[in-house]
UniProtKB/TrEMBL annotation, chains A, B:
Keyword terms of this UniProt record: Calcium, Ion channel, Ion transport, Membrane, Transmembrane, Transmembrane helix, Transport
Name under which the protein is recorded: CSC1-like protein ERD4
Presence of the UniProt keyword Membrane in the record: yes
All copies of domain CSC1/OSCA1-like N-terminal transmembrane, residue ranges: 5-166
Species in which this protein is naturally found: Sesamum angolense
Domain CSC1/OSCA1-like cytosolic: 188-355
Signal sequence annotation: none
């Protein structure tokens, strides 16, 4: 890619971004779209225009995002979102501080070097360009100028250490503040116990659990809720809910037909067979009504059977104070670690019930099996990506698909295509994976949704770095370098180091595309908007259906964080080699901060709260990027035959020490709740009845607040 | 060494053992020696002859050892001793079961092989011997007979897994039974808290600690005892105790002189200067009396100052029930892991007070520094051992010290010297190290004596295995193999595998010497007996001094276990290569079991109780030996050019899985107390006052039970 196509790519991206931003300003003012641009506010019963009414400035949202505080974010979107912004701020800080030193120092040093670029050091076919002159590749081998780059490597590392340390402390405080809040949070009074051994003869699991915990916590044990196998009851419940929805829909259609001039109305009909498409034609309202009446007693009966006979080897234990629950979740209860495993309870709605009864060793084995599958996935995908990045050059395309030639040879189309083709392929490719990884993470037997999301996020990160960053970099010179790797697999780092400068412009474009188009689409919400209006017009009949159509979802950490991380890895690895990438990184994170601040305050609704548990994952992966960067630099300096290269080794050692110290100091508080935090006073005495009921899954909760029927598996009043 | 000198060595060792055993039978019957042969019984106020009076059989002690139960051991010597016997029994089981299969199968297979021994495969100068014919070295390369040895390797491993699994379960039960005992054990009501942050302005550390824990445990917190810097007060206390001892001694001398005919008696005198050797001559009793009177108020004043002004950043917290203490010791208290670090309290008398205030990071750094020192020690000692084992062959000695030639050339002397020389050098050499390792372990900042002993034991094990086993084996062919290691350090395992058969007879002799002479000396207690009688005759004047002279000490795990482990490592590594070593191992562990059963029941007094915490250390080191054995076998089969050698690789993988599973299932209960165990009912309500006072160090406890003066640092009545 030459300098021209790079500028074109940048320009078109920017124009696209501007268009999308003005589209957003225009669309978000139309009241019919409020549910799409302010759903978080609407769901919290707030005025969508709050604070905005005064100004009609199209950039008002930017001002609003900038003046919003961390407390606003926590109030509107929880601690996890606030932690995500700490991440953005920290990376932004790292990049700005790095840029302030690296740009004014390294660019002149590189530009004034004699220059040693070889033909194969650039992505395009042998044509040097102005960007390459500003990179470390332009400095001759063994030059004393390389000292400036060594110092820069140290500077970036130290800036990262300092800011990460501050951020870890800050997040720790955020988590503590949220956990010590005087509001009653149901999950703080419960623990999950798994691997309950088979109950002795003549005892139900519930009785066993109750007597076990009452003996240990005579004063603080409240009740237990044994986990049941809900497959059957869930099926009936879903069937019932389905008919209820259909009934509401049929009634809405009937009401509509009445309103549409026909005072009698047309009673909607349905067929009793498969999907309402075959079978006898009946009156829909009557039919659904009848079905519902039929299913309710069936559900109640099934609930009874489930609670009595389908008790599993897991339970939720409730305590009447937070300190006991916090201490219990951290303590060994049985002499064998693989029985009566206790851990802290997540929020009720994010408990993965089906995973709870999974056995200790089953969980371990599943984990290893899934790590192996992920490993295969990562390395299996490497081959197609290598091919794609090699195939999607225009010249190759023309060779493979000759009929494209007349189109492609036009100058403008050629430039645009040349700029976008490889990156687009990459981005589409990456969209396929997250669901699969989340599915795998849940299959590990993890107890909570948030934990599964974190696990998926981690897997996706390793996938991105290995496949996109390393894969593309090496794949770029893959056909020349393939034999070398085969001969000696250890040559990955030096090979990566040598290949890096060649891919610099590719990644510059990639980052630019990501931030302009990505954040443009994010802000304007064009796709959800179109889908919503289509659904509303042609599908939705009831209030509930409309509401479902605009439900905004959450921030999607499982894909968002790995994507941000990939950018960070790219930018940090190139920061010294091609410092020009730093401003792009700054724009990515700065723009991301503003756009997402808007989205978090107004659009996304968090689907769970893990009190910042995502942070250690983020932190560790930032450090992984930093260490990859340091190793790459070590390899690159060697490739430059710089004899003082070993001065970089202490840096890598330092990184590992830093990881160790942070882990020692901070990590355990993110695994469990510190007792000091849990011991803070509550605003009011918790209503244990409410706490308890919040954990009953919807399919098992009865319509009436009649409790007796839950006596079997759920409860035992002390 | 040829077969003759081996038999001589064995024979003389056996005779020595018989002599020592009869010496024991004879000496232990003389009432004057009872304090040496039955101290544990005497200190527990039991009749030394209990159960023995009926029989006058000289082997009665063997019968008594054999019929004693595990419960007897626990009653007389605690859980730790019982765990030590589980270790002996388990290893004995492993060796017996291995021997039952390996001896009848492998010996004929090896003996009937064609034979391929080369000159350098034996320790002696090219002369083959009968022992070597019975070893795997005698089987030709690539022979199908090697399959028998492969199966044997698997058999030994599986026997080890099974017995270790059973043993781990059994020890876990022993620990649980001891911890759930209905007797009040003071340490179960306390936790140690370290890394207390600096107290806020206007608060003492004690006030800070009290308010912190009272907030978290409003109902169960009893009192706190802040750790003080006791250097000054200890000095005065020791001075005072010294004068008290001297006073008793002077009074005893005076009484003796009166009894010896002189009705007036001679009042002993002393000098006031250095060590009572120079200075003014004074009446001793008056002088000491005066000194004591002088020191008592000084001590009281110093106690006050210490408790008030020398409070350190650590404390002991007391709870009024066991469950809270157990849960507290496992829970994170502060959001920062490096402050308010809580761990369970060891027995009061084994707390290492001076280590408690050491800072979190100081402890970590000390640990790493000490690991490095130990690493250096292990590898620094390797050189001298290599030299010793190369120098102390008779031929070398004759060359180096020609004047010895006439003595050494006599046939009997030559045989004896040849048998003992290398082994004796080794045994003396090993006696130097344990104290140093214990000192290092304490310097790590460990909180309890038992933990320090465990740490020292672990270090000593690695030292023994690396230096004695590997060092001697390779050192044996060191001068031929030195260049090879230099070229390729990875060649250690194949080199070791090749060198093993050559050292087989050396180690056979080593094991035999260890069990016959070692256990003979252990049983007969000749050395302590002589020292005791000398001390009693010439030094001891008072009752207390006599008692001190016969104090038996404890089992000495820090050196005993590594020594046993070394034998196990040797025997297990040779079990398949030279199966003849197995009977020697069986005798070592069988004899050890009987002799030590006697010693534990009658002689040694445990100096602490860690409730079996030593077991995971023992277990892990048995597994380390097993893995070393498997790796060695892998190397040895390769050296035999056996093409199916890789069938041994799954075995090593299996060992690692076994370690992992055991760790997951059992280990945590050895780190902390399971709540279920701690929740068992007590025989009586604990007297918290007594529990509290048991932790006051002697130098700080006052004569009168007056408490008010402890208010400052120790106590705060709730």
């Amino acid at each position: 890619m030459d300098f021209n196509s790079f500028l074109t790519s940048l320009g078109t991206s920017f124009v696209l971004f501007l268009v999308l931003m003005f589209l957003f300003t225009w669309l978000s003012r139309r009241p019919g779209n409020h549910v799409l641009y302010y759903p978080n506010r609407i769901l919290r019963g707030m005025d969508p225009y709050e604070g905005l009414r005064a100004s009609r400035n199209p950039f008002a949202w930017i001002r609003e995002a900038l003046v919003s505080t961390e407390a606003d974010v926590i109030r509107m979107s929880g601690v996890d979102s606030a932690v995500y912004f700490v991440f953005l701020t920290t990376v932004l800080g790292i990049l700005v501080l790095s840029g302030l030193v690296l740009l004014p120092v390294l660019l002149p040093v590189a530009a004034t070097a004699r220059g040693v670029m070889k033909a194969n050091d650039t992505t395009s076919e042998g044509s040097f360009n102005d960007l390459d002159k500003l990179s470390m590749g332009h400095v001759e081998q063994r030059s004393a100028r390389l000292w400036a780059f060594v110092i820069a490597t140290y500077w970036v590392s130290f800036v990262t250490y300092c800011l990460l340390w501050k951020a870890y402390k800050h997040v720790s405080d955020l988590r503590a503040a949220a956990l010590m809040s005087p509001d009653v949070k149901n999950e703080q009074f419960a623990v999950v116990v798994r691997d309950i051994p088979p109950a002795p003869e003549g005892q139900t699991i519930k009785e066993q659990v109750d007597s076990y915990f009452k003996a240990i916590y005579p004063d603080t044990f409240y009740r237990s809720m044994v986990v049941t196998d809900n497959k059957q009851v869930n099926k009936i419940y879903e069937e019932l809910e389905g008919y209820r929805k259909k009934l509401t829909r049929a009634e809405a259609i009937y009401a509509e037909s009445k309103a549409a001039g026909n005072p009698e109305g047309t009673r909607p009909t349905t067929k009793t067979g498969f999907l309402g498409l075959i079978g006898k034609k009946v009156d829909a309202i009557e039919y659904y009504d009848e079905k519902i009446k039929e299913l309710i007693p069936k559900l109640v009966a099934e609930q009874r059977v489930t609670l009595k006979d389908r008790q599993q080897s897991a339970a939720i234990i409730f305590f009447n104070n937070r300190v006991t629950a916090a201490a219990a979740s951290q303590s060994l209860h049985d002499t064998m670690v693989d029985t009566w495993t206790v851990s802290d309870a997540p929020e009720p709605h994010q408990l993965l019930w089906a995973n709870l009864p999974k056995n200790f060793y089953t969980r371990r084995i599943r984990q290893y099996v899934i790590y192996f599958i992920v490993f295969l996935t990562i390395f299996f995908y490497m081959i197609p990506i290598g091919f794609i990045s090699a195939l999607t050059t225009l010249d190759n395309l023309k060779k493979l698909l000759p009929f494209l030639k007349p189109v492609v040879d036009q100058a403008t189309i050629k430039t645009v295509l040349e700029a976008y083709l490889p990156q687009l392929a990459l981005i589409i490719f990456l969209a396929l994976l997250p669901k699969f990884l989340l599915f795998l993470s849940k299959a590990e037997g993890i107890a909570s949704e948030s934990h599964a999301q974190r696990a998926a996020s981690g897997k996706y990160f390793y996938f991105s770095v290995l496949n996109v960053f390393i894969g593309v970099t090496i794949g770029n010179t893959l056909f020349t370098a393939l034999k070398r790797i085969e001969k000696d697999p250890n040559s990955l780092v030096p090979l990566l180091a040598e290949s890096l400068p060649g891919s610099a412009t590719f990644f510059l474009t990639f980052v630019a595309l990501k931030f302009f188009v990505g954040y443009g689409l994010e802000l304007s919400r064009i796709v959800p908007l179109i889908i919503f209006h289509l659904k509303k017009k042609y599908l939705c009949k009831t209030e509930a259906e409309v509401k479902e159509a605009w439900a905004p979802g959450d921030l999607g950490y499982a894909t968002r964080i790995p994507a941000d991380m990939l950018i960070l890895t790219i930018v940090i690895c190139y920061s010294v080699i091609a410092p020009l990438i730093i401003p792009f990184g700054i724009i990515y994170y700065g723009l991301g901060w503003i756009v997402l601040r808007n989205q978090v305050l107004k659009v996304y609704v968090p689907s769970y709260e893990s009190y910042g548990r995502i942070w250690p994952h983020i932190y560790l992966r930032i450090m992984a990027s930093l260490i990859l960067y340091q190793a790459t630099m070590l390899g690159y300096f060697s490739a430059k035959e710089f004899i003082y290269t070993p001065v970089l080794i202490p840096l890598i050692v330092l990184s590992f020490i830093f990881v160790l110290v942070c882990r020692n100091k901070f990590y355990r508080f993110f695994q469990c709740t510190a007792l000091e935090v849990a011991s803070r006073e509550l605003k009011e005495t918790p209503n244990m009845q409410v706490v308890f009921r919040s954990f009953i899954p919807p399919s098992l909760s009865s319509e009436k607040a009649d409790e007796d029927q839950f006596e079997d598996a759920l409860s035992h009043v002390v």
